[in-house]
Design a protein that fits this description.
By secondary structure, the protein is an alpha/beta fold. It has helices at 10-26, 38-41, 59-64, 66-83, 94-107, 128-134, 145-152, 163-174, 179-185, 202-216, 234-237, 252-257, 268-275, 289-299, 307-312, 327-337, 343-359, 364-377; strands at 2-6, 31-36, 46-50, 87-91, 112-115, 137-140, 158-159, 193-197, 223-228, 246-249, 261-264, 280-284, 318-321.
Length: 382
């Protein structure tokens, strides 16, 4: 069968590539065409555009590149229709993907499946109308979404487990470097490491990385290691490497697996740090911080911004967002987590275990692939 996938960022590339592997296991004749990244390309098929050509975040960047975004949407809609896939699989990235879903649902009979649902429980809840109308099946990776979609909005979804659990489990079994090998391979001093995951886009990195680095300087016994974002050249990071920090690309999981603590910009990385059981502080600086804090208080539908806290439904990790993202706070919160036996560190690791139990066993990609293939083979059986 023919599968058309659309992702808009690095995490989507990872999870879509794992889904593609799982689809190939159940469908020997699977053909792929996609808007995606290098991990998806490595599995074969045809890449129409790289996600880097799609990824714009924030009001000003979107406004500045609006013509490009609209052009990408138009060409994507046309390409899907012309290729006539058996299924369209959308992965997160709602601003783009919900527009594609609306068009395909209205103008074709191609089933629309959404893997990694839009986070409308946090923002833009009105989009539930679009999802109900345009999405045939939604595959959720967050357990609390069941209540939101099914109980609150009467829209049945498929909870398949979390693909980050799959990815970390596979890494630890097959790809993890020993600490010694990791340090030698990347010329890193033999000190306890603090991982710095400052986001995947340049504006995020500019906003967060300087303060992260400044905070780690307060603890000279520890060495900062920056996880380089895919698609961003090392030259971009050069101004941040003058204080002795090092940067490693393409090895975020090895960085986390060998780190004593982490400073993490909110997103999938917060969950990944927890799965590696690395105590962390969530750091998210924003322009106009006081305005953002006011908007968060009055308009956001959720109490937390990090996936760890949302899944656990309590504050497991400290979130320093907007006006709270100050150097003194980062130093203070990091300092609580560094001593091996500190009560804050011990409590966080204990809560990580509880959160991991909530997520469930590995196998999200396989369960999703099996369900999609079954729906396509037996369209009348849901």
């Amino acid at each position: 069968m023919k599968y058309y996938l659309i992702v808009g960022e690095a995490s989507g590339d990872l999870h879509a590539s794992n889904l593609m592997k799982a689809i190939k296991d159940v469908d020997n004749d699977a053909q792929f065409r996609f808007f995606g990244g290098d991990l998806m390309s490595a599995l074969g098929g045809t890449r129409v555009k790289h996600y880097r050509e799609l990824a714009y975040m924030g009001f000003i960047p979107v406004l500045m590149h609006l013509r490009t975004i609209l052009s990408n949407m138009s060409s994507c809609k046309k390409d899907v229709v012309e290729w006539k896939p058996d299924a369209l699989i959308l992965v997160d990235y709602p601003g783009f993907n919900l527009s594609i879903a609306k068009y395909i649902h209205k103008n074709t009979d191609i089933p629309v499946y959404y893997y990694i649902s839009p986070k409308i429980w946090a923002w833009k809840e009105h989009r539930i109308k679009n999802i109900k109308r345009d999405v045939d099946e939604l595959f959720s990776i967050l357990p609390f979404e069941i209540d939101f979609f099914e109980k609150k909005h009467g829209y049945k979804i498929n909870y398949v487990g979390n693909p980050c659990v799959d990815a970390v489990d596979c890494f630890l079994k097959n790809k993890a470097l020993s600490r010694e090998a990791f340090l030698v391979e990347n010329s890193i001093p033999d000190k306890p490491l603090v991982a710095l995951l400052a986001g995947s886009r340049k504006q995020e990195i500019r906003a967060n990385l300087p303060m992260m680095l400044e905070a780690v300087k307060e603890f000279p016994a520890y060495h900062p290691v920056i996880a380089g974002a895919p698609g961003i050249d090392k030259e971009f990071y050069e101004p941040y490497l003058k204080e002795g920090a090092c940067i490693v690309f393409g090895q975020t999981y090895n960085i986390l697996n060998n780190s004593h603590a982490a400073l993490v910009t909110s997103g999938t990385a917060t969950l990944e740090a927890a799965l590696f059981r690395v105590p962390q502080v969530v750091c998210y600086a924003t322009p106009m911080a006081r305005l953002y804090s006011w908007l968060k208080k009055h308009f956001l539908k959720v109490k937390y911004v990090s996936l760890v806290n949302l899944i656990a439904d309590r504050e497991v990790v400290r979130e320093l967002v907007a006006a709270d993202m100050r150097l003194a706070n980062v130093k203070s919160e990091l300092g609580k987590l560094l001593p091996a036996g500190s009560k804050e560190r011990t409590a966080m690791l204990s809560e990580y275990s509880r959160m991991i139990d909530i997520l469930g066993e590995p196998g999200a990609s396989e369960r999703t692939a099996e369900k999609i293939y079954s729906l396509l083979k037996n369209p009348d059986k849901t």
